[in-house]
Write a structure and sequence with these properties.
six-stranded antiparallel beta barrel, Multidrug resistance efflux pump acriflavin resistance protein, MdtA-like_b-barrel, four-stranded antiparallel beta sheet, RND_pump_MFP, conserved putative lor/sdh protein from methanococcus maripaludis s2 fold, alpha+beta
Amino acid sequence: MPATDRYSARGRFLAVTCLAGLSLLAGCEKKQAAAAPPPPKVGVITIHTQPVLRTTSLPGRTASVMTAPIIPQVSGVILKRLFVEGSDVKAGQQLYQIDPAPYQATYDSAIATLKHDEAALVADRAQAARYKPLAAAQAVSQQSYDNAVAAVKEDEANIASAKAAIETARINLQYTKVLAPISGTIGASAVTPGALVTADQSTSLATITTLNPIYVDVNESSTTWLRLKQEKDSGQLETTPDGSVKVTLTLEDGSTYSQTGKLQFSEVNVNESTGTVLVRALFPNPQHLLLPGMYVHAKIDEGMNKDGILVPQQAVSRNTRGDAVVLVVNSKNIVSQKVITIGRNIGSDWVVTGGLKAGEKVIVDGLMNATPGQPVSPTDETAKYAVNGAA
């Protein structure tokens, strides 16, 4: 065969071989395209607003409404103790008896002085009355009459002073009966009969504490307090008809206190060192279960957020900065990540305070299969999670 014919046949063979190779490559690409996996399936819920009770749980301590240390107002020896330690006492009830003998003697002496001054007044008035016409007739000197009138006025002053002395002696005699200034529970006695006490001493004889009702003091951050005030003023939070704010307690052992309290007031100044505001609640305490100084957790019902948003806890994770994040699906079924702010939990849901709005679709199932920027095949599972309030 001529050389030209051999080269021509080889060219045709190579061309056919290349075409066959290209056909095979195109077939492989079609097979690979046909074998690409479909978008992963995920379960989503559609967010919408609903009424959510806004509460805040804060640690605090109980404090007595009234506390009265018993301080003697006169000096003397204690003769009797007239109460049982740890018992309830009433205002005005006698607690101790201080020896009244010296005060009784002072009182009796003041009365005797008064009677002496009253007798002197009678005599001096009579003398002044006799001297008046005699002085007019110049039968006695004017000086004698003036002295008689001055003696009457002096007697009147002495009587006033004696009456004041009697009142002072009566008060001191009454103070020998040490009375309860308030009603409440009295603690241990610091003295026993026979002990010498002094007026206005620094050490109290005992202390009375009012236990029913009782205060619970908590400290709330000023930023939270400011946000709540703004939400209430704008109408986002609805309070009770009477405007009161209810408070419930969890005790140190984890049990719930049976009585419900009400918020009394908040401090008007912010603590500069802690950035908190003192909030005080008043609780009934008929069984004296709460004692001053106990550590408790108070849950404050701050109001109803009529446009609240809840999301299942399993849908929320944390990014590297510690922010709460969720995965959302847009109208083109593309996944994106959103940073949200969350508050307390209600059951298995988080209360969302920012970052989400009604109508958005949040992934709750298949989170491991969802990648931001990639498409997914969402299935609406709103009804499934409606039990927890997420829908």
